[in-house]
Each structure stands twice: as structure tokens, then as C-alpha cells.
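thought: user wants a sequence for this fold. calling inverse folding tool.
action: design(structure=
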């Protein structure tokens, strides 16, 4: 485990009783069924960038990738919901679309619109203190707004991590990270050896969201401060793809240089925050993550020497 890791493009997310992993051309999701068996589904990726190569350009690729990741996540959750319960569930395209739109709207409202509104209560104090310097006034307003946004995000994670069902998903999140870590270190992929690795990973979505919130402070400061609160919220929504694109580039760079002391220091807050969104998994949960990795490697590999993965299942 002391060898320098080899960066990989493989990423994923935890789902209900399982793990979804995504490669360059395929994605796979593995789920532990109520009878103890592991079932997997593998499909080809259909990306916008494969049709329009300019969408692979830096910054643009991050914004596009975020939208694709949300859609893919909903599909994986749909599969896991059907396979992880004994009840027959059928979620149609309309229900999936409604879920995506509702979830996206709630996220924008909670983490962007609400901080703008709450920061207005501190506006008079800031204005009276630095009224003569418009740029400094605007920047401090954004610092306050960003602090409120991070506080809401932290409180939200504290709340959901206390829920029993969510904690189990976070255990699978830990299994996903451990498995990717082990794969990057090119060890023999046995659940017991995988379990020795950390549940925290620099390319985690939790770290990405924290980077988004930090970068947004500086980007939003360039927008000025319109009098209308609706105008301020609208401007933030308009530049959100830019914020997401820049944040993606930061995470991508960090993933390639995670052995750097500077990167470890910069990414330390995001890694610390993952202590809320990951939990130590059981060996059974690691087996599910390994089954997902094996299914993915079976159809596309990693472009590098593949690790020796042992059969996984119940």
C-alpha cells in the first residue's frame, strides 16, 4: 500500500445496497439483493461529448459532465431500488425526469438562493463598515454568503448522516472509495486487502461540492451586487456552469497529483468533510463494490495493466 498510486478515470457513486462505477465507455451498477446474491447491470455510455467533441474542452467538459452524472446517477438509483427490495418497483421515464428536476430545484434553492437571501440580513452592517469601497463591499458580501452556503451544506450533511438508511448508503460510499484506492495501487483485489485502504478519496463528489462553494465566492464577486435579490440569484444560476467547470478542473488536477504535499493541504478540508459522507464498510459491501469493478473491467479495462481481481459474490 506504500507504492505510488496510478491515477485512473474510474469514478462512481453509492446507491441503495450497491455501487455504481463509470468508465470511459461503459457504466455498471452492482446491488446486493434481499436473498444475498449480487446482481449487476452494465451498459454503454452515451455522452454528449461523443457527438460534439468540443464539449471535451476544459471547463466546458466539467459543466457537461456534471449534468450527465446526475442523469446517470438517477438511472443507477432506479436499478438499485428495483433490485434491493422484494417489492416490485417500476419507475418510468416521467417519474425519473420529475425526480431529477425536483432534486435539482431543491439543491439550487437550498445551496444558492437561500444563502443569497440570508446574507441580505448582514448587508447593512457590511455596507456601513466599508461603504466607500464598492469592490471590497461586494467581496465581503460574497464572503458572508459563501460562509452561509458552506454552513448550510455542513448542516445538511450532519442531518442526513444521522439517518439510518443514509448511513448504510454512506457505507457503500466507503466501499466504493476503498475499491478504487486498491485498484489505483494495483494490488491483488481481495476484499480483505481492499478493506485496508482509506474511505476518503480526493476525487469524491463531496470534495467537488466544497470546491464549488469556495470558487463560487470569487466568481460571484465579479458579478457585482444588483439591488434586486432576484437579479442576484438569477446571475448566480447563469454562471453556475462556469463554477462547475472550473471546480471540475481543480478536482481533475488534484486527482492526478494527489501525492503532492500542496494538493494534500489544499484538498484537506474536502477530505475531512468526507468523514460525514463515508462510513467504514463491511466485507460484504466491499464485495459488491468489487463486483461492480469486475463487471466494468470485463467490458473496457482501464488502458493499463489490470489488477488480479478475485471473483466476488455471495
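)
observation: tool returned 314 residues.
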Amino acid at each position: 500500500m506504500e507504492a505510488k498510486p496510478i491515477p485512473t478515470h474510474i469514478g462512481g457513486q453509492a446507491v441503495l445496497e450497491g455501487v455504481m462505477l463509470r468508465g470511459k465507455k461503459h457504466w455498471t451498477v452492482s446491488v446486493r439483493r434481499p436473498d444475498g446474491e449480487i446482481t449487476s447491470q452494465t451498459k454503454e455510455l452515451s455522452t454528449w461529448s461523443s457527438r460534439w467533441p468540443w464539449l471535451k474542452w476544459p471547463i466546458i467538459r466539467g459543466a457537461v459532465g456534471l449534468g450527465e452524472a446526475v442523469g446517470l446517477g438517477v438511472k443507477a438509483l432506479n436499478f438499485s431500488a428495483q433490485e434491493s427490495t422484494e417489492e416490485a418497483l417500476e419507475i418510468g421515464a416521467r417519474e425519473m425526469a420529475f425526480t431529477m428536476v425536483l432534486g435539482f430545484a431543491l439543491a439550487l434553492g437550498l445551496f444558492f438562493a437561500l444563502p443569497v437571501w440570508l446574507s441580505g440580513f448582514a448587508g447593512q452592517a457590511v455596507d456601513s463598515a466599508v461603504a466607500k469601497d464598492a469592490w471590497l463591499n461586494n467581496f465581503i458580501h460574497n464572503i458572508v454568503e459563501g460562509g452561509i452556503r458552506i454552513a448550510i451544506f455542513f448542516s445538511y450533511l450532519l442531518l442526513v448522516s444521522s439517518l439510518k438508511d443514509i448511513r448504510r448508503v454512506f457505507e457503500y460510499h466507503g466501499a466504493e472509495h476503498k475499491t478504487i484506492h486498491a485498484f489505483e495501487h494495483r494490488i491483488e483485489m481481495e476484499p480483505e486487502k481492499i478493506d485496508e485502504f482509506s474511505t476518503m478519496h480526493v476525487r469524491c463528489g463531496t470534495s467537488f461540492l466544497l470546491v464549488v462553494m469556495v470558487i463560487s465566492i470569487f466568481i460571484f464577486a465579479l458579478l457585482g451586487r444588483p439591488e434586486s435579490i432576484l437579479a442576484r440569484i438569477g446571475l448566480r444560476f447563469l454562471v453556475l456552469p462556469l463554477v462547475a467547470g472550473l471546480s471540475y478542473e481543480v478536482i481533475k488536477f488534484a486527482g492526478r497529483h494527489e501525492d503532492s504535499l500542496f494538493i494534500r493541504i489544499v484538498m484537506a478540508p474536502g477530505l475531512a468533510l468526507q468523514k460525514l459522507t463515508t462510513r467504514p464498510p463491511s466485507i460484504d459491501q466491499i464485495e459488491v463494490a468489487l463486483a461492480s469493478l469486475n463487471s466494468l473491467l470485463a467490458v473496457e479495462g482501464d488502458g493499463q495493466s489490470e489488477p488480479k481481481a478475485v471473483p466476488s459474490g455471495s
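thought: summarizing for user.
answer: Here is the designed sequence. The first strand starts at residue 11 and ends at 15.
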